[in-house]
Amino acid sequence: MPVHPYFTAVFSGEGEPFAEGPWDTSGLAVEDTAVDGPHGPVPVRAYRPEGELGGAILWAHGGGFRHGDLDMPEGHVVAAELARRAQALVVSVDYRLADGETTLYPVPIDDVHAAWTWLAGLGELADLPIGIGGASAGGALAASAALRARDVGPRPADALLLAYPFAHYPNPSLDWALYPEMAEVPARFGPEDVEGMVRNYVGRISDVPADALPGAARLDGLPATRVLVSEYDDLRASGELLARQLAEVGVPVETWVAPGMTHGHLNHLPRLPEIDESITFLAKGLNG
């Protein structure tokens, strides 16, 4: 299908802007707190559904490593809906953002892993599955934190839930068949954009550490993974390559291409069926 007209309207200024305002959190207990981390306290927001828990998910929003917070829809709305749909305690982590100078890799990963360490240590979750997930740059951080959890604990993740992850540098090329439709996409990630993200996050574009963008890391031993990609997204190729890499080393992986969607579509309210289905696809990965 072509690029969804919703996104053409949004980026032209003629449609609904990025979702703002309150989101219905009825049936959820929402609490802001902070956990200890190697660089100081890490703010987190917990979403607890009513009834017996089916597990837990640590969630990391996107924003190119330099933008984003707990209130953006990709953080707040997605976390709330994951809590509802997976009947899970969802903890959204407000990791420190890279600034290209004083806050660089591995600080954001350290913050996400600190939140993971706290969540994994909750006694009520000892016998329940715990997943880790994130969107875009947050997907890279989630995968990197899952690698660290695999290697140093305190317990490995039981599921990895990735939405349009940015997992490689250089970014892989898209299939040529997508190029005519990609010309209609209002927001693109060109080579300079990708290079700028990596410089701001790592401080350089050479000798990039393997776990900074985890497509270059050893991936065996990661848990069953769900990879959501947007149909019209320059970073789609990274998510699909990561899925192939995971499958090659024996990690169970499921991929879903959100039709007509552009990068960051989870940063919009799930009123469109495709956005709603994207969240459901991720939620099913916890117990899937």
Automatic annotation (TrEMBL):
Record bears the keyword Acetylation: no
UniProt key word tRNA-binding: no
Classification via Pfam families: Abhydrolase_3 (PF07859)
Domain Alpha/beta hydrolase fold-3 stretches: 57-265
Taxonomy, superkingdom: Bacteria
InterPro entries membership: AB_hydrolase_3, AB_hydrolase_fold, GDXG_lipolytic_enzyme
Keywords: Hydrolase
Any one GO molecular-function label of the UniProt entry: hydrolase activity
Name of protein: Alpha/beta hydrolase
The organism of origin for this protein: Glycomyces mayteni
Lineage: Bacteria, Bacillati, Actinomycetota, Actinomycetes, Glycomycetales
